[in-house]
Design goal:
single chain, 16 strands, GMP Synthetase, Chain A, domain 3, alpha/beta, 2 domains, 5-stranded mixed sheet
């Protein structure tokens, strides 16, 4: 066989391989043929059937109103169906494209739907390869259909990006917490604690309710999503937590109670707290608070019930400034420090007895500290901690160090 003939065969093989590698596959999915779902909503439909809402991204979509640009990058389609999979199938028959859930950023359950139990839906979602485990879980105080239809991001052009970054406000407010699907599912299947989700709602003039405020000093933090007096274009509110017992919604926490949860569970980054002024009963003092070390939680059995101790260590800076504030001396700072300790101790006690006595839902994972009191895991399971949490009693200690203001009091 000549060298020229060998080279010809080699060239033919190279061209053949290149030709097949560059050719497209007829059955392969093309991005232009897909409709990307950025949010899922679950409501109770008629005759207890499922009502599914899909928020679908519309690439490049936007509309302008007046002098500002309002994002209109998505549409919401709602379907009554018997199950999640049949709803997705119906959606595909309605759209001109095949739906894709790989970019879903948030799963929204209405309160009514969550009250009835979400275990079947939860396992179904976890079984979907397309649904990412890092998408957030939210319980809406209005229907999920209404929530998605009225979620209009202002500072972000894409709804998906908005849903992704909105829960991160907890890092500097403490009013909520980013809860992913994998975290929610892990807590649900755990024997040491219960699960919880973001509490959300839509802000509008019809949802403002002054009667929900307990006291003027606490009015900024004692609200929940769907009831604050914030005025603006951004309609979504993430404030508070939705508390579950098993797979059913059993209660909700407001902003201040959520801050207490962060303190106990050592997830507080920073927050602003208003406390009654110990120097003037008609005024309040704003403090920026952060944990200086993880909260020390311990649990032991006393007469068959859990005795739980929590030692909280905080650092605070004074934010409220008045004409005479700069003259605060060490004695007054110590007096203010005691006032902060007393205030937070009372609020944390209220929070702990709410989740134990009223809701019987251990969202702080105290079970992980109690389990060491049992010789075997079988003994632990027989104790049935998640049912016995309501019998717990608590001992809370708050230690705080207050620093003066950032500029005026340090010059």
């Amino acid at each position: 066989m000549s060298k020229t003939f060998k080279n010809s065969i080699l060239l033919f093989l190279i061209l053949t391989i290149a030709l097949f590698s560059l050719s497209g596959c007829y059955n392969e999915q093309n991005i232009d043929h897909l409709a990307f779902v950025v949010a899922l909503g679950f409501d109770v439909g008629e005759d207890n059937q499922l009502k599914l809402s899909f928020q679908i991204s519309v690439p490049g979509g936007s509309s302008e109103s007046g002098g500002s640009s309002q994002s209109d990058s998505s549409i919401v389609t709602t379907i009554e169906c018997a199950s999640f999979d049949s709803g997705v199938n119906l959606l595909n028959s309605y759209l001109s494209k095949e739906s894709n859930l790989s970019h879903c950023k948030i799963i929204v359950f209405s309160e009514e739907f969550a009250n009835n139990g979400i275990s079947e839906t939860l396992f179904t979602l976890m079984n979907k390869v397309e649904v990412r485990p890092d998408c957030n879980v939210l319980v809406s105080r209005c229907s999920s259909e209404y929530f998605l239809n009225n979620s209009k991001p202002v500072l972000e052009k894409l709804s998906a990006r908005y849903y992704e970054i909105a829960p991160t406000s907890s890092e500097y407010t403490g009013f909520t917490q980013s809860i992913t699907l994998s975290e929610f599912f892990s807590d649900y299947t755990d024997t040491f604690q219960n699960c919880y989700a973001i509490l959300g709602g839509i802000n509008s003039s019809s949802t403002h309710d002054l009667n929900s405020w307990e006291a003027p000093i606490e009015k900024d933090s004692s609200n929940k999503a769907h009831e604050t007096l914030i005025q603006g274009k951004s309609n979504i509110e993430n404030m508070g937590l939705a508390i579950f017992k098993g797979d059913k919604l059993v209660g909700e926490l407001d902003g201040l109670e959520t801050i207490c949860h962060h303190m106990i569970s050592s997830t507080l980054n920073s927050c602003i707290i208003n406390i009654p002024s110990p120097f003037d009963e008609n005024k309040s003092i704003s403090l920026k608070v952060r944990l200086i070390k993880d909260t020390k939680n311990k649990a032991k059995l006393v007469n068959g019930s859990a005795y739980i101790t929590s030692n909280v260590s905080l650092e605070a800076r004074i934010l409220t400034m008045g004409e005479n504030s700069k003259y605060l001396n060490n004695e007054e700072l110590e007096y203010l420090q005691k006032a902060l300790n007393s205030y937070l101790t009372t609020k944390i006690y209220d929070y702990l007895y709410k989740i134990s006595k009223d809701l019987n839902s251990d969202i702080d994972g105290f079970g992980r500290h109690l389990v060491q009191n049992f010789k075997t895991f079988e003994d632990w399971e027989n104790f049935n901690w998640l049912e016995n949490f309501k019998n717990s009693f608590f001992d809370v200690t708050v230690h705080s160090t207050i620093k003066s203001g950032y500029i005026l009091m340090e010059t």
